[in-house]
């Protein structure tokens, strides 16, 4: 049985998700705390990955709680991670655990 405080998920087409996600140029104006490589991810969710050099554009990715944030492979590039939207990994939900 599901508790009332648990998050319920529904399928949303990708074209409807895009408008709610921040544009990649929002790294400097973002309000969440910047995380650095080597930090453990405390909250699963969608993160904005901000590169200090222009070798790659900033991107959004899904990161899972408990993993370590990787560094960028480019030697001169520092990278930071900003939480855009928290989310629960499906197999962390008791209804879906195997």
Kindly describe this structure.
The chain is mainly beta and 98 residues long. It has a domain at 29-92. 4% of the residues lie in helices and 20% in strands. It has one helix spanning 14-17, and strands spanning 45-51, 59-63, 79-86.
Q: What are the key terms here?
A:
98 residues; mainly beta; 3-stranded antiparallel β-sheet; 4% helix
Mean pLDDT: 75
Low-confidence stretches: 1-9, 17-24
The backbone outline, from C-alpha atoms, is elongated
Largest sheet: 3 strands, antiparallel
Compact summary:
With 98 residues, the chain is mainly β.
Topology:
Elements: H1 14-17, E1 45-51, E2 59-63, E3 79-86
Antiparallel strand pairs: 1-2, 1-3
